[in-house]
Amino acid sequence: MTNSRMQQQIDFLIELDRAKNIYRNSYLTAVPRRKENDGEHMWHISVMAIVLQEYSPQEIDINRVLRMLLVHDVVEIDAGDVSVYARQNDKGLAERESAAAKRIFGILPDGQGSELKGLWEEFVAAQTPEAKFARAVDRLMPLLLNYYTQGNTWQDLKVHYQQVLESNRRTLEAVPALWEYARQILEESLQKGYIKKI
Amino acid sequence: MTNSRMQQQIDFLIELDRAKNIYRNSYLTAVPRRKENDGEHMWHISVMAIVLQEYSPQEIDINRVLRMLLVHDVVEIDAGDVSVYARQNDKGLAERESAAAKRIFGILPDGQGSELKGLWEEFVAAQTPEAKFARAVDRLMPLLLNYYTQGNTWQDLKVHYQQVLESNRRTLEAVPALWEYARQILEESLQKGYIKKI
After folding, report:
1. Are A66 and B63 in contact (CB < 8 Å)?
2. B35, B51, B180, best to mutate vs chain A, most A CBs in 10 Å
3. What ipTM was assigned to the predicted interfaces of this complex?
4. CA distance A91 to A89
5. Model confidence over B66-124: pLDDT tens digits?
């Protein structure tokens, strides 16, 4: 192609096609296939951020949140999807994700690649209001999909109520209305037998 | 749930899970499964809009473009996916899509539902700079996926070079750099035998 800048951008977009093959632990609510993939997940939580942005306790730049969410899991093309419950036991994960970010965002023209890689780093660092809100919706969606599919993922991963509560507390507490909602669905999941107490 | 406004919002998000089961005509480039679905498509072209925004000939509000693209195909949950080549022969389509928009965006709280429905209507009307740019990336991605999968979809739909060129011309000409790129990949597809001349 004649325009090499545009070709780098197209190459990046074609590389991202692979995210449609990274299957997650969350089950789908209305689909005969079992589990969702990263492409679907990044779309779904981006819409979630649009719809639930009013619950952020701080002013947020929703455009920044959307750009962050739309690329936050592309590192999993190389590094794979690891559940929040398994992350702390996966010692090489941060390094694998870092190498993946370098390779994948590196496909883009220089300034543009580093900008998107910066958004991914901001998401991981969890310090800005935008990153905190983005991380909260990223945690709420799997809880919801789990609740609407009778706790399938919790049973697969053999996690119990207290573990789910504690693993999600810090991230979701940053957006109190979402944390309140998450606690309610966890409580109901316990009562309905979707998840075990201990 | 105690907060009925939030419950309406969650209901909308869960309804959208069904978009992950609306399969499109485009083949996937790097996935053992054959075709992509609407959830994946809305994510992929949203990232495309971020990456290619510099080619818009007019100033655009990228936040508006992203919100538009993230919901532009949810009507297909009810109305189904119809290829650009079949749309003009599907007399009931506009009506089915309109009814779908009313039902699906209607799940949201009043003001929020009409805002997102308005974005979908803006996309369909194709008048604003944001809608024109959004529509151009929505057309470019299927051409790309087709090129990178040796023209599978063109062969399935039995469309030839001239038809693809004319069906996409008006939408893609709105963003000249993307139209130029699209014409190049179509030309190469012709030379490589991915698509027939007539």
Report:
1. yes
2. B51
3. 0.92
4. 6
5. 999 999 999 999 998 888 888 888 889 999 999 999 999 999 998 999 999 999 999 99
Locus of tokens 């309140």:
A180
State how far the alpha carbon of A143 is from the alpha carbons of A57, A185, B1, B107, in Å: 21, 8, 15, 21
Given a contact cutoff of 8 angstroms between Cβ atoms, the answer to whether A44 and A69 are in contact is no
CB of A133 closer than 8 Å to CB of A53? yes
Kindly state the tokens that stand for A149. 């599919």
CA distances to A39, A58, A197, B158, B162 from B190, in Å:
30, 53, 62, 14, 10
A62 touches chain B (CB under 8 A): yes
Model confidence over A120-176: pLDDT tens digits? 999 999 999 999 999 999 999 999 999 998 998 899 889 999 999 999 999 999 999
3-state secondary structure B92-157: CHHHHHHHHHHHHHCCCCHHHHHHHHHHHHHHHHCCCHHHHHHHHHHHHHHHHHHHHCCCHHHHHH
The CA–CA distances, whole Å, from B27 to A25, B31, B172 equal 24, 9, 21
What's this model's pTM, rounded to 2 decimal places? 0.93
**Quick check: B75 and B59 in contact, CB under 8 A?**
no
Q: Which residue of B has its CA nearest to A7?
A: B181
A 101-130 residues inside an 8 A Cβ radius of B: 108, 112, 116
Q: Find the angle CA(B80)-CA(B82)-CA(B84) to the nearest 5 degrees.
A: 155
